[in-house]
């Protein structure tokens, strides 16, 4: 009875909830925080009730409750009416009553919608001749459906109406020329078998069974099949709202039916009978009409909020409960054949639903089954990643506690660099639910004015003294401007500052110095780890290296230790903690001071070990030029919280160059045209779950990745060329099913193609030259030539970071003398200005360059110069502590395969390397330290085996003890033997930032050892970011 109404509304909403069904992705996706609210949040409204800003669980529960309550009431009342004596003959008059109520409901909704949207006149969009057809079909659907209850029992009618797919498929093939998959026909056949079985069982045991009822319900379904296709075509062509079609379809249908009843002399008979039974006809009629009309809206809300498969599950469960209630409250014979035939119909429904959701074909069923078996078999491996994604909920709870503790109407003002990370935590709709009215971007030059005297302003900023000072100045200006009208209640604070990730004690002193103490509220918010990609976590605190290593300020280590404690609380505390470096030791001590964590009962997916190392223990990894695609993207383009942005003329390389050397390209020389929306910077999300192109190529050598991207682009172009050879019906099916996905894939490919071209353009000329220099440094080849080449690179390609980066690599590997440093400083300042002279002290503070001190005597300086000019076959490089440890840990690999390959300096000439070793990330010349330590740890059979490989390295500690001491304790039985590890996930944390080359190397180690490695840090960085920390 309600099928035509559902199809009326579903046609209007098909484009809206199809996108929701299709966006069934995994993981926590980043959401736009500052875009238009309507574009960001799918509106969910049931009549005048707005459910848009409720969480998904609340929306689902409300929709389910509405569907069950309303449709159970609808079915009960409808069957109750037709069980009364004499109602069998007035089924069509009862339909007239229902049409009258539906007209009133549709008109009321139409008026309310017009008032809400500000429309003064109600305009009809669809031509009247179309409504003439729709009204006749609506009348046939509703009238035959109602009248069939006089000849069939209610469960049989429910089963027939569940098989609506069969006539709809026939109608859509005949009317719209649609094409269906084999599985769709299989689902229709399954429904037919179940329907025939149910009807046969009903005819054998039911005394009231009549073939006229089967004919009537079949005619109702045929009308419904035609009406659904006519409605879909009309709404697509004229874009009419659903309430308009309800009003006109039922209005004209009411006129049709009234005329038919008057002609057949059944109107007055029905009216007389209804007046004799007003409660059943008008009272029950109003209730079941209202419940049916409202039920339509709840079904649509369920589809929009959860998707078609879950909606189908709920409605099917509702039908099962309806049938059970029918047998419970109304006596009728029962047979077990009802159950089996009903299950056949249900299986046909789900076969159709999942065929549309997953685009299944008969050939795709085995792959789908294999995927399900794989998911079930490897649930333990993926559950740890699901727990890591759950860190978002903890961060939301923290932020909610802060926001809800501040009363009043609130505006949120964000530091620009915090916008992208915050999108991983929550959306604008979530903030609105928590009381945030408006969201602004912090402008250093213009303060955001308060819109009302009682408006509260929340500033979210990083824990940086400079930013804190600027925000404080803006607040002071606003406070002094409104001081004459400032409320007498001084205890209430209208300004609040949320510091990420910590609120330092000197912030209170700064407020007191500016006279704002007590006026401004201070809050600390640490969002802990953000799940950027599978196996990649980040705190998104980019100033840790500058603060901790350059400024020697350990204040941020407290926030890091607290985040690690939260991570251990979620994923379990490991038995083994391996630390390397002073900062890592301090973090471990802070974790111990924070106290023990409760032991988790489930140990199947906890971290079995944590490896923490300081960034200064492996400076070579960020300073070397990576060879993999993801690493090179980081070298050239701006990165923030898993998102790369690149425009036509802006990137890191262009910003580093002297303006006089920034020669414009041919594209830049072209005359500029007016900017449009398409001129916005392109975006690549470094998330394998959101970008399949990135997922396939992220850890490949750049040449392999570039070739793969071009090959995929050719396949897409060939796929799009097929459209020109298709027939009209094939083209329509192709556009509806495949084209949206291909278009989305094409846009992603275009971004990656543009990024690859820009990489070659920016790095191509000096890529091999830089790698050759790095190889010479690591192999101790011709120190004098290496230093001269670095000087020459400063002259020929003056970038602020590239030559500094090579000099730092030279120093940490073999040392740089004072004379060499003074010479380089002189040349560098001549090019870029003497304002940069102080950065060399900062780099020296971090251990990347030597301290600028004079040698002991003139004799030593002369001897040093003479020694540097000796051309003997003896080592002229010093062996630093880092180089000694690198050889002990076997971080260096053979690179003789590339000797003599200096004929071509372009990026595309780089040879493709084998990825069988973690060293492939640096063209087989160096293995990142964290990858090598993971290899030793995962392959060690016992503690003694591991100690034999790393015991010579000072400052490596296991559970707070040196390796030798811990090994002795294990031998003496004082400590439990923890090795070998049982292939549970291990966590690697780098204090001071990690590179994608290191992440890729750890991913290779995980594959080779069949283990899981999660790499975490305070930020993801490139070598240029490390050097820029000193500026």
From TrEMBL:
<dbReference type="GO" id="GO:0005789">
    <property type="term" value="C:endoplasmic reticulum membrane"/>
</dbReference>
<dbReference type="InterPro" id="IPR043154">
    <property type="entry name" value="Sec-1-like_dom1"/>
</dbReference>
<feature type="transmembrane region" description="Helical">
    <location>
        <begin position="284"/>
        <end position="303"/>
    </location>
</feature>
<dbReference type="InterPro" id="IPR043127">
    <property type="entry name" value="Sec-1-like_dom3a"/>
</dbReference>
<keyword id="KW-0472">Membrane</keyword>
<feature type="transmembrane region" description="Helical">
    <location>
        <begin position="182"/>
        <end position="201"/>
    </location>
</feature>
<dbReference type="InterPro" id="IPR036045">
    <property type="entry name" value="Sec1-like_sf"/>
</dbReference>
<comment type="similarity">
    <text>Belongs to the STXBP/unc-18/SEC1 family.</text>
</comment>
<dbReference type="Pfam" id="PF00995">
    <property type="entry name" value="Sec1"/>
</dbReference>
<feature type="transmembrane region" description="Helical">
    <location>
        <begin position="207"/>
        <end position="227"/>
    </location>
</feature>
<keyword id="KW-1133">Transmembrane helix</keyword>
<dbReference type="GO" id="GO:0046964">
    <property type="term" value="F:3'-phosphoadenosine 5'-phosphosulfate transmembrane transporter activity"/>
</dbReference>
<dbReference type="InterPro" id="IPR001619">
    <property type="entry name" value="Sec1-like"/>
</dbReference>
<dbReference type="InterPro" id="IPR043155">
    <property type="entry name" value="VPS33_dom3b"/>
</dbReference>
<feature type="transmembrane region" description="Helical">
    <location>
        <begin position="158"/>
        <end position="175"/>
    </location>
</feature>
<dbReference type="InterPro" id="IPR013657">
    <property type="entry name" value="SCL35B1-4/HUT1"/>
</dbReference>
<keyword id="KW-0812">Transmembrane</keyword>
<dbReference type="Pfam" id="PF08449">
    <property type="entry name" value="UAA"/>
</dbReference>
<feature type="transmembrane region" description="Helical">
    <location>
        <begin position="60"/>
        <end position="78"/>
    </location>
</feature>
<dbReference type="GO" id="GO:0000139">
    <property type="term" value="C:Golgi membrane"/>
</dbReference>
<feature type="transmembrane region" description="Helical">
    <location>
        <begin position="247"/>
        <end position="264"/>
    </location>
</feature>
<feature type="transmembrane region" description="Helical">
    <location>
        <begin position="90"/>
        <end position="108"/>
    </location>
</feature>
<dbReference type="InterPro" id="IPR027482">
    <property type="entry name" value="Sec1-like_dom2"/>
</dbReference>
<feature type="region of interest" description="Disordered">
    <location>
        <begin position="893"/>
        <end position="916"/>
    </location>
</feature>
<feature type="transmembrane region" description="Helical">
    <location>
        <begin position="128"/>
        <end position="152"/>
    </location>
</feature>
<keyword id="KW-0813">Transport</keyword>
<protein>
    <recommendedName>
        <fullName>Adenosine 3'-phospho 5'-phosphosulfate transporter 2</fullName>
    </recommendedName>
</protein>
<dbReference type="GO" id="GO:0016192">
    <property type="term" value="P:vesicle-mediated transport"/>
</dbReference>
<comment type="similarity">
    <text>Belongs to the nucleotide-sugar transporter family. SLC35B subfamily.</text>
</comment>
